[in-house]
Every structure is written in structure tokens, then in C-alpha cells.
Amino acid sequence: MHRAILGGGGGRTGRVRRTMTPVNTQEIAATAAQMVVEEGLEYGPAKRRAVRQLGLPPRTPLPGNDEVEDAVREYIAVFCADTQPAELQALRRLALFWMERLERFRPHLSGAVWHGTATRLSDIYIQLFCEDEKSAEIELIDQGVAYEPRTVTGLHREPVEALSFHAPSRELGETIGVHLMVHDLDDLRGALLRDNKNRTPRGDLAAVRRILDQLENH
What we know:
218 residues; 5-stranded mixed β-sheet; 8 helices; 7 strands
């Protein structure tokens, strides 16, 4: 923040006027990206914390998620290129394991694990599309999975149930957060529309298997 001193003529006391330095959303995105990669924060909290860390006003315009994702990819390329690919593969294999266990609910992988920006600190997000939305919860109970239910915002900004639990990853040597978002079957059609980068925003079982096969045979 800069201060411009305006001199007052005729002996009047000068006034102080504050002017704002233009906000650089790229700087916010870069700071948020470091938090995403190093601390496992989600984009929203990372952006808000970046604003505070940079000493910017609370109402500072925030970068879009696409801009933060680009910054995350740059950060990974510079600082994590030797470790992130293996961590991503481990997370995708763990996601596939749970998708196979929940195959009848039409699971679709989304988030950083699907898009390729995940590290060992990232959680796994899987969308389920059910004819009976309580059936997925009953399935977890039948499989002996201890989960925590909560309400989150769904694909169409409506409230949906999320079932969260921790799953062990033998490859990473730690437990990973897994979040199942339970949607109505009718939501599946709109869930596959391409995003702002012309990408499929989530992938089904076949797509996840295909990505793993391609990278493991590369």
C-alpha cells in the first residue's frame, strides 16, 4: 500500500490519501499453490490464507481455480518432479481399489487425483451416482467401513451427502482421506460435461484403469 501526500496550499494542513497497489492474482495463486502442495489444503482455503499471508485486504479479488491449478502444476514441476509422479500413481491405485469396491454405484474419480496434480497430502474424491442415495451408505456399513457423514455442495449447487473415511495406502505408508459424494443417478448426465479447459472433469472406472495402464506401461 502506497501513501500519496497532497500538499495543501495557502498554509492548510496537507491531507493523506491512500492508494491501493493493483492486486496481482498470479502472486496469490502462486502462494496458494505452495500451500496446496506442501500442506494439502483445498483451493478455497489456500486462496484465502494466501491473501492473509500477503497482507492483502480481505475483499481482495481472488484468482480462479484454473489459475491456481496452473500454479500448482508449475510448483510441482519445479520442486516435486522427482516424487510427485509416484505419489500420484499410488493415489490413483488406491482410488481404483475403492471404485471397484463400489462399482455398482457408478463411481467417478474427480479432483486433483483425476487431473494429475495430487501429492501424498491430497485426498481422494469420488462421485457416486445412485438410484437410492442411502444405498451407498448401507454398502459401507456392510463392508465394515467406519465413515463420517456430512453435507456438502453438489454438482448443481444443491446439498448432497458426503461419506468420508481414511484408507491405508501401503505404497505411501500412511492413510489417505477418501470422500464419497453421493448424487442422484439423474445427475450423471451433466457430470460429464467438459470444463473450462475442455477436459472431462471426472473419470469412470474404465478411464482410471486406462490412465494407470498407460503410465505404468510408458
